[in-house]
Design brief:
Elements lengths: L5 H9 L7 H21 L11 H35 L7 H36 L11 H26 L5 H32 L2
Helix pairs in contact: 2-3, 2-4, 2-5, 3-4, 4-5, 4-6, 5-6
């Protein structure tokens, strides 16, 4: 993604190629949300009217910038994990030994493929938590962008959850599946927080 223009990446997403796909799109939503959080802080920092919030805005800016960098990396990581999983299905299966090796490789690759959207969900949850710290402590002229950031991040978490679940359905080790499910549930709770923040901002904007 870092070597492509947005137009090129979207063309790849729209093509018949299996990757990038929904997981990469979820990571892109995280990056968009983080970027909007950064924008709000950048429009707060250095403004005399919001001087009392400068230190807070600088802290949020640094955290959002780190999340954006992570999200960009996860766009590529998701495609790589999916490609690696697909490769395991092409492993030989002529002998019983080969079949056993193939089954094990598929399971390992499936768990790895679920790990990436879990990281995307976690990053999306972080964007929501960062956005929630801005109303009342940032430039109110871009309050709507705080809500858009939260909306994009909530969509990212939900989208990532879908991609985790499709992999969970193929994992036969109950302990592995249970651990991944528990982590997903933790991050999914951010969806409600993000949508609540959107509702609060919209109510404020339409007073």
């Amino acid at each position: 993604m870092t070597q492509q223009s947005l137009t090129e990446w979207l063309s790849d997403l729209a093509s018949s190629a299996p990757a990038p796909g929904g997981g990469a799109a979820a990571a892109m939503n995280v990056a968009l949300g983080a970027s909007l959080v950064e924008m709000v802080t950048n429009l707060t920092i250095g403004k005399s009217a919001y001087a009392e919030h400068q230190e807070h805005a600088e802290s949020i800016l640094a955290q959002a910038s780190a999340v954006r960098a992570l999200a960009i990396a996860l766009i590529g990581a998701d495609a790589e994990a999916f490609t690696a999983l697909m490769a395991t299905y092409k492993l030989p299966k002529e002998t019983e030994e080969q079949k056993a090796v193939r089954r094990a490789e598929i399971q390992n690759a499936t768990a790895a493929a679920a790990e990436v959207p879990l990281q995307i969900a976690r990053a999306g949850a972080e964007v929501i938590d960062l956005a929630a710290q801005l109303p009342g402590r940032s430039n109110p002229n871009v309050l709507s962008d705080v809500a858009v950031a939260a909306s994009a991040a909530a969509a990212a978490v939900e989208s990532a959850a879908i991609n985790v679940e499709i992999n969970l359905s193929s994992i036969k080790d109950k302990d592995v599946a249970g651990e991944l499910s528990a982590r997903l549930a933790q991050y999914e709770s951010a969806i409600a927080r993000g949508r609540a923040l959107v509702a609060e901002v919209r109510a404020e904007l339409t007073k």
